[in-house]
Amino acid sequence: SPTMKPQVVFVLGGPGAGKGTQCSRIVEKYNYTHLSAGDLLREERAREGSEYGQLIATYIKEGKIVPVEITISLLRKAMEETMQKDEQKFRFLIDGFPRNEDNLQGWNKVMDNNADVKFVLFFDCSIEVCINRCLERGKNSGRTDDNRESLNKRIQTYLQSTRPIIELYQKHGKVCTIDASRSVDEVFADVKAILDKEG
Ligand code: UP5
Ligand code: MG
User: Fold this and answer.
1) Distance from the alpha carbon of residue 12 to the mean position of ligand 1, in angstroms
2) How does pLDDT run across 143-158, given as a tens digit for each residue?
3) DSSP character at residue 98
4) What's the start-to-end Cα distance of the chain, in Å?
5) Nearest residue CA, atom 19 of ligand 1?
6) What InterPro entries does UniProt report for this protein, alphabetically (predicted)?
7) Please, how many CA atoms are within 13 Å of residue 185, restricted to the half-sphere of its CB?
8) Of 34, 40, 92, which Cα lies nearest the Cα of 66?
9) Which of 19, 70, 120 to probe ligand 1 with, by most ligand atoms within 8 A of CB?
10) What distance in Å separates the CA atoms of residue 107 and residue 97, rounded to the nearest whole number?
């Protein structure tokens, strides 16, 4: 049978909004593969012989957005590998991407014809909630960016670069917004309602 075109849901929201947590819950119940752009970048940072390791390390610590060529190639490879192993696995949650204009342009250039973006799941919560969750996690996450200094930069990048991307999708009627300040179960109840309706 012909290989299906990948069906993509972008998962966005501030640092610590709960994107990864909710994606894990979704994968347990729905036929989606979770690809976190941040996780893929952290893996690439750790990969022996990576030519981008140092660049990625610096960008992450500074809360800056890595040039899209790098992120897209990691996402594309992960999608291709998933579909090669099991052609039924063509539904993807792409978590933490696209975060800025450069990301969006890179996606449109490389992936627009090769994947369908169904909608954006936007986990919305206050900056205070974002900061508190990341600082709490930072006690034992080992993440180089879960400290106050990096967090301030991540928040600034989110407000300046990522919010406008969410607003752009909103103008096209493609955003499902979820109040992410509540408990994991309450947030997931809304996620389920959306996925049961939107597929
Ligand atoms: N938690 C989760 N949900 C909760 C709830 N409802 N109530 C109470 N606590 C809750 O959750 C964060 C913490 O909060 C956890 O301890 C969790 O238990 C708790 P998590 O699910 O991890 O939130 P998430 O939104 O995934 O937070 P994360 O820190 O991963 O978000 P970021 O967007 O900041 O990080 P990401 O890994 O996506 O990106 C990191 C960096 O990589 C970026 O800053 C950037 O430098 C780089 N990057 C790029 O350059 N390009 C990309 O495309 C992607 C990343
Ligand atoms: Mg995450």
Assistant:
1) 10
2) 999 999 999 999 999 9
3) -
4) 22
5) 133
6) Adenylat/UMP-CMP_kin (IPR000850), Adenylat_kinase_CS (IPR033690), P-loop_NTPase (IPR027417), UMP_CMP_kinase (IPR006266)
7) 0
8) 40
9) 19
10) 9
Alpha-carbon distance of 105 to 36, in angstroms, equals: 19
Number of Cβ within 10 Å of residue 149's Cβ equals 11
Specify the DSSP element, H or E, that contains 150: helix 148-157
Q: What are the tens digits of pLDDT across the range 50-90?
A: 999 999 999 999 999 999 999 999 999 999 999 999 999 99
The two three-digit tokens of residue 127, written as one number: 């900056």
3-state secondary structure of 137: helix
Burial (CB < 10 A; 0-12, 13-18, 19+), residue 22, is: buried
Question: Coil, strand, or helix at residue 12?
Answer: strand
Cβ of residue 99 lying under 6 Å from some atom of ligand 1: yes
Q: How many residues does the chain have?
A: 199
| Rounded Cα distance, 172 and 116, in Å | 15
Q: In 3-state terms, what secondary structure has residue 83?
A: helix
Kindly state if the Cβ of 63 falls inside 6 Å of ligand 1: yes
Which residues share a beta bridge with 116? 7
Sequence-distant (≥ 6) Cβ neighbours of residue 60 within 8 angstroms: 38, 41, 42, 45, 66, 144, 145
